[in-house]
Amino acid sequence: MAFLIVVLCILVLIVLVTLAKCNAFLAFVIVSALAGWWLGMPPQSITAAMQKGIGDTMGGLLIIITVGAMLGKLVAESGAARQIAQTLIGLFGTRYVQWALLVAGFIIGIPLYYGVGFVLLVPLIFSVVYQYKLPAVYIGLPTLAALSITHGFLPPHPSPVALVTQFQANMGLTLVYGLVVAIPALLVAGPFFARYLKRIPASPSPLFQTKDTAEQALPGAFNSFLTALLPVLLLIITTGLLHGMSKSAPLYGLISFVGDAPIVMLCCLLVATFTLGVAQGKPLKDIMNIYAEAVKDIAMIMLIIAGSGALKEVLAASGVSEQIAVAMRSWHIPVLVLGWLMAAVIRACIGSATIAGITAAGMMAPMVAAGQVNPNLMVLSVGAGSLMFSHVNDAGFWMFKEYFNISIKNTFLSWSVMETLVGIMGLIGVLALNTILTN
User: Its domain of life (predicted)?
Assistant: First the structure.
């Protein structure tokens, strides 16, 4: 009966978000209250559980997500993202311009949130398309695949960070494993798949052509690359140092503090404030305004994650999460596959990768806590599932269709298939990595 109630709650959530067009945060709050009531919790315990879930979830995420948004906004506003793309195009040359944009999408996608990265990169893609007279979908899709992969697999993006917190995984290890899984997924869903898309007709508007910007107005290439990649470099370096060091070593505590994700992101923001802000002649007041705008951009994302925390805590406090975990053990499906499958089903129903990932995580958390699976790999498995089949209920589907001006049929054949390949290759990569780590 408890399992049926949870299924009903997920269905209500899907209906509220899709058919009723309800705000996702409000939908989570409504469903959390209904779930507590249907599961027989005392009324006063329901609100207490919801408040605790929101507090516990956001307590570990607020600094990372907020500071990450500020860093990404500054990378975009300062011209560093454009400098990265231009440098890579010049380095790779005309013949390999697709690869240049793909690498640019991956690097820019690490600090930038998906929607910001999409809007920023599409004009760059179209400028290359017009300049070299190349097929738009063939050139552009691998770049957007790179954005999608960083969004689903790699911290400091909201969904992976939220999953790391829910599964009590290690941020640095998750990032390292995520990079290992992301590269083959990107190659298959990007350049390999794009070879079959050269004949898809697309007529992007000339309005999206980029205007030339004076080189001196952009930050230097080294500065741009280093600032954008600094969070990844610091997390990888500190994680490597900690794994090669005894906990009793004198510097262990200091490196552990410096390598903690919120501190890493704060340090990177302080560096970027100087390298991409003050050193480029921007007044500090203007930089702070950029940061304020960044918080507005991700406010709803944070609320959605908070709402998911409320539902997770209600299910945990009622005891139903543990009941589901026990029941799932009899399904004889590998835990990593099960987490991927749950996220994929919710993604197909709701359309939001973030909601799909964090909703599935609430169901899988007891099994991870019981030590049945590597929590870092579970983050990636759920993340891969949350990127599966994107269709008409996903904003990304329509952004791609309208920006590239292609038919719905060709959007399915290109965008939807690409996202599905990312999800499938992500699962294959996670299972392969799990085999290596357990042997």
Answer: Bacteria
pLDDT value at residue 325? 59
Q: Which residue has the higher pLDDT, 59 or 377?
A: 377
pLDDT tens-digit readout, 259-269: 888 898 899 99
| Residue 215 in tokens | 């080189």
Helix (H) or strand (E) holding 267: helix 261-272
Mean pLDDT along residues 248-273: 89
8 A C-beta contact, residue 4 and residue 39: no
Burial (CB < 10 A; 0-12, 13-18, 19+), residue 435, is: exposed
* Residue spans of alpha helices (H) in 154-260: 158-167, 171-187, 193-194, 221-243, 252-258
Q: Are 235 and 259 in contact (CB under 8 A)?
A: yes
- How far, CA to CA in Å, does 388 sit from each of 21, 127, 309, 353, 376? 22, 29, 23, 8, 19
In contact, 137 and 98? CB cutoff 8 Å: no
CA 348 to chain centre: 17
Closest CA to 401 of 110, 204, 113, 164: 204
Domain ranges of the chain: 2-438
Is there a contact between 140 and 207 (Cβ–Cβ < 8 Å)? no
Higher pLDDT, 290 or 206: 290
